[in-house]
Amino acid sequence: MSKAIPEPVTRLIDAFARLPGVGPKTASRLTYFLLRAPDELSDTLSQAIGELKLKTRLCSVCYNITEDDPCDICKDPQRDATLIAVVEEPLDALALEKTGSFTGRYHVLHGVISPREGIGPEQLKIRELVKRVQSEGVRELIISTNPGMEGDATAMFIKAELAGAGLNLKMTRLARGLPTGADLEYTDSVTLMRALQGRQDL
Amino acid sequence: MSKAIPEPVTRLIDAFARLPGVGPKTASRLTYFLLRAPDELSDTLSQAIGELKLKTRLCSVCYNITEDDPCDICKDPQRDATLIAVVEEPLDALALEKTGSFTGRYHVLHGVISPREGIGPEQLKIRELVKRVQSEGVRELIISTNPGMEGDATAMFIKAELAGAGLNLKMTRLARGLPTGADLEYTDSVTLMRALQGRQDL
Question: Which residues of B touch A28 (CB under 8 A)?
């Protein structure tokens, strides 16, 4: 069987298969696609992957991925420095940014507290957040970790840390409830319970 | 919005999104995964993509992808040179190879006749197949193009070409019928019709 596949092909299939959500079948499909595609595509892809880490770093203020330190958002005087959305991952900051309705800045934790995966608070950028609140005159933290056990526990931990440091500021959490387009009939009961609890005046 | 994503990140997301089956969401997920993954993974992936085309070529006998020309299968004296499976793509040869029950050699057409996509017979390795049959004393061609209009038309075209060249040899087509594990109730009627037509003695 191995005779049917040359080594450079196997090597790329194996590498692709290490990406999340890419099984061995998808990995071979991608590889054989690249074999047929113009050289320009493999060149672009190879170079972009090679340069990804060389040309990016974490912003020393908010820990988002950036080319320049501090990042464009932290440097932007138009963005409210007293309002910080605390997110798990850079993609979460991006999702909030896409709403076009957040005018504050971000703080990327790079994970959540997860005893199951052996991730404790010291591995997250929580100490850095406390320092930032102390020195930057932050007015409100919107804790935007994902809804769910780990995200909620991380939110509570941050609250306790800030209280422990004697920092009293407004802390909020993203609203929970029905997503747009939801169908009550098919909504899980935790979501529905949250929607009831958070009901708003008409 | 663009401010939230540094350029090297966007560039890789865009490159990933050019791969088949990879939408913009998957492309960002893969990119941010690589940002967090060990450098070794991006290095391996970047290098494997870069070397894929540099280190492979088409076998000048069977047109499969290979490192050395001719390929290992065409060079292997154990493989029956008089029995050739004609396939559309290298992955199809690989699929047959994985059965472990094919002892002949391959011929990769690199596509099928498809007026819809503007692919005519002259863009496929059909002329090369005719030459090969002429010079190599081939006993049987198993036309293993995909079942369906285009694969069937390509099979008929090859048959006509060989007849036109005065070549009389056994030509077969992979059996059509029920796949293993199929449920008659959910089988499409064309497949069921083929299974009836090709029914075998018990």
Answer: 91, 94
Instruction: State percent of chain A over pLDDT 70.
Output: 98
Q: Is A4 on the interface with B (CB under 8 A)?
A: yes
Residues sharing a CB contact under 8 Å with residue B25, sequence separation 6 or more, in sequence order: none
pLDDT (tens digit per residue) in B100-159: 889 999 999 999 999 998 999 999 999 999 999 999 889 999 999 998 899 999 999 999
- The whole-model pTM stands at 0.76
- Chain B nearest C-alpha distance from A63 (Å): 12
* Partner-chain residue, chosen from A9, A15, A51, that has the shortest CB–CB distance to B44: A15
Cβ distance B4 to A94 less than 8 Å, yes or no, reads yes
Per CATH, the homologous superfamily of domain A7-54 is RecR Domain 1 (1.10.8.420)
Candidate CATH numbers 3.20.20.140, 3.40.1360.10, 3.40.50.2300, 3.40.1180.10; the one for domain B77-201:
3.40.1360.10
Fold match between domain A7-54 and domain A77-201: no
**pLDDT tens track for B181-194:** 888 888 888 888 88
**Contacting residues of A for B8, CB less than 8 Å apart:** 48, 51-52, 54-56, 67
- Cα separation, B86 vs B67, whole angstroms: 21
Mean pLDDT of chain B: 91
Residue A66 CA neighbour count, 13 Å, CB half:
21
Write the CA distances from A57 to A61, A121, B7, B36, B158, integer angstroms: 12, 22, 12, 11, 57
Residues from chain A contacting residue B65 (CB–CB below 8 Å): 5-6, 9, 32, 35
Per-domain residue ranges of chain A: 7-54, 77-201
